[in-house]
Amino acid sequence: MSELIRYEVDDQGIATITWDMQNSPMNVLNEGSIRAYADLVEKAIADDDVKGVVVTSARNEFIAGADLRELLRSSEQSAEELFGWIQNLQGLFRKQETGKKPFVAAINGTALGGGLELTLACHYRVAADNPKTKLGLPEVKLGLLPGGGGTQRLARLIGARASLPLMTEGKHLSPDKALETGVIHAVVPADELLSAAKQYILDGGSAKQPWDDRKFRVPDGGVQSPKGYETFIGGAAMLQKATWGVYPAPKAIMACVYHGLQLPIDQGLKVEARQFVKLARGQVAQNMIRTLFFSLNDANKLKRRPEDVPTQEYTKVGVLGAGMMGAGLAYSLAYSGVEVVLIDRDIESAERGKGYSEGLLKKRVKRGRMTEEAANEVLARITPTTDYGQLEGAQMVIEAVFEDRGIKATVTKKAEEVLGSSAIFASNTSTLPITGLAEASSRPANFIGLHFFSPVDKMPLVEIIVGEETSDETLARSMDLVKKIRKTPIVVNDSRGFYTSRVFATYVQEGIAMLSEGVNPALIDNAGRMAGMPVGPLALADEVSIELMYKIAKQTKADLGDDYVEHPATVVGTKMVEELERIGKKAGAGFYEYPEDAKKHLWSGLAEHFPLADEQPAVEDVQQRLLHIQGIEAARCYEENVVTEPADADVGSIMGWGFCPQHGGVLSYIQTVGVREFVQQCDELAKAHGERFAPPALLRDMAEKGEQFYD
Amino acid sequence: MTEAFIYDAVRTPRGKGKKTGSLHEVSPIHLVTTTLDAVRERNELDTSIVDDVVLGCVEPVMDQGSNIARVAAIAANYDERVAGVQINRFCASGLEACNMAAAQVMSGQSDMVIGGGVESMSRVPMMSSGGAWAADPEVSIPSFFVPQGVSADLIATKWGYSRTDLDGYAVESQNRAKHAWDNGYFDKSVVPVKDLNGLTILDRDEHMRPGTSVDDLGKLNPSFEMQAKMAGFDRVALMKYPELERIEFFHHAGNSSGIVDGAAAVLIGNKEAGERANLKPRARIRSFAVVGSEPTIMLTGPSFAAEKALKRAGMTRADIDLWELNEAFAAVVLRFMDVLEVPHDKINVNGGAIAMGHPLGATGAMILGTALDELERRDLSTSLVTLCVGAGMGIATIIERV
Fold it and tell me: What's the CATH code of the domain at A588?
């Protein structure tokens, strides 16, 4: 009857509504499907021959969620319009659960967001025992809240304490876990799903929701019960602890549950709708949806892959250097089904590199995430060796040897002697320009930079660096590898530090510069966290090693000669390395102390060597410096064509170094501040703290013309 | 402006605020009527001249609910024309009640008013009355709510008071309280709590631990650390005070105020009413003030309130003979002494709530009486009484003997 949703009534008087959106990659709630569904709900309720209704899907998923493309436009809607829209959806679900006919959700596959909310407005939820099914309300991850009654129904179903983490963290549940938590009523074999659903109706199952019963009590005590009260007092603090107060959505979710649970459901839904409108029209949700949904999906789908190059299949890849990076690479490749030749100078090192995978796989087996058999298969794909001859037949070799041009040149030549003519040679350098490294190659068109992040098995980003000679074909085939190992690529052009290292470094350096000015080190690192960065700049300096930054600065100075401009942080780094011998975390001594039996803490000697200034800046000013300097450097990269798409810059910043997701990435941050305001603020910062804050001409130009990175 | 005089001040002894405490069997109403009876009997008071009873109570629910002040006046057989009102300014409620009583007199709208307070912490535990500040996420999150104990530890961390500093102060509180009790300094004001047969239930503050040493206290575990770290209140405090790397958890049961049961009443009136009732005024109320201050650190209000009350009275710090600051937490007093440069031998000279306990709604009225007794004993003139108050408030009252 519709290309979106089917409707049929069987001879037992059971109507089945089957979601099957023909022209959409997945079943989603959008204007069209909601309208179609609403018509069917009304039709079923009005039809005297219909006893009850089963809602299911003919696709792999049940319903994947709401169409974010529509939501991304919600900032353009007035608050009244959006409030009306969300109340309309809430009204539909309310009609469904109060129509005096049993509605049963037959959950065949994943039901997320609005999809799960639809099932929560059913009187009975039965799921197929499909382990791939994900059930959850993940709206918070995109800065939103479940606005289709999710906060009200889930909290009434399982109580505040159990429901809050599911919504504020956006956790997914498997059907078994959802059953255990009380989110669904039953799990049955997939082929019995529809019959189990119908049986509920045939057995005269209730058509009244628990919360519509006069005797309803919120499970686990209401908000004002001692336990409920405690839940909200502690819950708010836990939220702050987890997020440093950066995100508005989890706070709003908590407010919906706190107030909503003290009200009849219809009033609670209004509370939820108001909070939803505020979030959906807010900048954070817009930023997160744009970058973490659309731009990220585009990147994962290889939107920037040069067309007309056949997809490269990967069966064998060589990894040169079995250190931390090489070992992680070997794991990620082997885990994705690729045979790996892991080469190091001596066999012990190579085997130690393979041992890293063994450790990770054992953990997975122990946690029940993998069978022993599957783990052994993965491990068997890694061949540790010293013999370059084993690289024969590899489609790609990735070098992860020491950051030294000479060593890199040697291994390049050795590998190319064995490799077939079409094989790609990729360098996993984080700093050395690719075009220069490619000079050691006999076929620079096949030479590319693949900058992985450590630890490789956890970090999702790969920065692909296109050298001057790198061919489109090499780029396309390299992107295929990134997709193969389920990572996210961004594509950048060659430059010192490329994109991610270059911008990321400014954050760390700015923090260190402030230390040299006498800013309280605790304030510096707390400000970083409160701004939304995952780690404070001084703690991060310790992690990446103060010594490494010191060496890079030295190398840069040697390379640039008269063009070199010394950053105030370099003085501190030099002092820390040369004089104080505190080179970072791996040595157990940096800006922090690392006691064996206690948490790390700031080194008490900092006060002596970098005495506190009498006047301390406000935390907001520290935050501004730490974020603006990154924005400026990213804009410079864009200006210099190092990064060519704002989406790449934004995705790379969040996935690469964890730049404030609430701002949608580093260029989105500039847009969030406002380009014109950002330029003005940078001019002021430059006056106060030096030329490194001078905004690039590109930004000045954009400000004048009123342009933005995104429309 | 009419002057307000203190004619009498009484208090119950303080019982341990738990199920095994001596006053747990005593209802909050009985605690109040003990003090109201004493005020009437000691002063041979015709209660019909009392306009109002103003009582502080921080958890005004259950047995303390429903305007305990009026109900207590009825239960104590006061003249039926005596009104009653219960007020809540958290830990300052008892002093606030006295200030409000004084304000009624000063404004000329009442002649004689009883101010006081009550808290049976064993019967109606803290947090019983709920409230939005701690629980409503729309309030607690943006205002960086942390429990009071964390605030006290925040003060110690921010101004560098060590565990030994705090414990040393606590030991001195115990020593002073014992000395005061041993020498009868509290006899004038403490009224024993008796049963319906006239048998004494309690006649001494039973929370005290005389002879406690710094070493003894050193063995106690911090009280607020586990809860703070589990829930993340230390992070919340750091977000408000990002110049700190971490919160040091130094407060514990031995250097924080004790949880106790008790009540107090202070008879306040104008000159004419006192003369009519044949009473001799003991002190005049020179000024009083309340302030709000930063709510996360919460407990630094007393110095601001003290300065405001001094200014209002046209006085300086040097004009105050004795200081009385409720010992909610040791760090609160140490900070106050540092800010106002008050020497230790002029403040809390007979100990305080660390030794004897802090019955939330009553304490302010209790220490007002304690200060007055001590002025008389030493034949000094002026005292400033102050308390730190939940949600960042502070209160101060200056009295002067007549």
Answer: 1.10.1040.50
